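Thread: quick sanity check before group meeting

JM: Hey all, I'm pulling together slides for Thursday and realized we never actually wrote out the predicted structure for the chain we discussed last week. Dropping the sequence here so it's in one place. If anyone has concerns about the input, flag it before I start.
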Amino acid sequence: MALATFAAAALTTGGAARADLAAGAACAAKLPVPAKLVYDAVAPALKPDSVMKDVVIAQVRPLVLSGKLDRASARAAAEAAGPCLKLVK
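JM (edit): ok, ran it. Output follows.
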């Protein structure tokens, strides 16, 4: 459940924001590979009314279980992707 802990701490939104897909994509282009993997998995699943923590957990857990993302780096990758994901939320 470390995945839930980091998601709650790193990816909670502070307020209502409009989705800006272009800004999110530009931000994601600068991310390291693991964080870009998280962004690419989570961004399409985000909806205006979704809880980001829940979406991150639902999308990142399969990446870890399939070996595409190392468990030890999942937290840092999600934290790095967080600001870009907030832009598309």
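AS: nice. Residues 2-88 form one domain. Confidence is low (pLDDT under 50) at residues 12-17.
JM: adding both to the slides.
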